Amino acid sequence: MMFLLVSYVIYQHYVPVKVKQQSLSLSNDDEAVILDLRSYQDAAKEPFEDACNIPYPYIKRHYHQLPSRHLYVIAPDWVSKNVSIRFLKRKGLNVKGYSIMNDFS
User: Fold this and answer.
1) pLDDT at 92
2) More confident residue, 15 or 62
3) Is residue 23 one of the residues assigned to a domain?
4) How many angstroms separate the CA atoms of 16 and 78, rounded?
5) Could you tell me the CA-to-CA distances from 52 to 39, 49, 56, 63 in Å, in that order?
6) Count of domains in the chain?
7) How many CA atoms lie within 13 A of 95 on its CB side?
8) If you write DSSP's letter for every residue of 27-76 in order, what string do you get?
9) What is the pLDDT of residues 13-37, one digit of tens each?
10) Is 105 part of any domain?
11) Gap between the Cα atoms of 3 and 12, Å rounded
């Protein structure tokens, strides 16, 4: 039983989601919503125009505020990207792409 639990946690966090990495220029998709999962401080330092900033720890509380259009996710790291996109897809949202933005890239 413990093996299954550990396997599930590893899968949720480290197995990549099947969503394409995209550049942040979304000129071909005017209907898209950009969801910024970085902390408020990181998003303020390096803002992205018209992005909806909901930090990763708050996504479960505030996902219902997102419109049901195409979503592009800006994540601070690979783990929060994987966990967040899996969660959003489970809730029926249409995630089309992602980008990783952190202090190390």
Assistant:
1) 93
2) 62
3) yes
4) 8
5) 12, 9, 12, 11
6) 1
7) 26
8) TT-TT-EEEE-S-HHHHHHS--TTEEE--GGGHHHHGGGS-SSEEEEEES
9) 888 888 988 877 654 677 889 999 9
10) no
11) 14
CA 15/CA 33 separation, integer angstroms: 25
Collapsed DSSP state (helix, strand, coil) of residue 96 = strand
16: containing domain? 2-100
Task: Give dist(CA 52, CA 72) in Å, integer.
Answer: 10
**Which tokens go with 24?**
């942040």
State if pTM tops 0.90: no
In CATH, what number is assigned to the domain containing residue 23?
A: 3.40.250.10
In this structure, the chain runs to a length of 105
Q: What tokens appear for 75 in the block?
A: 């994540």
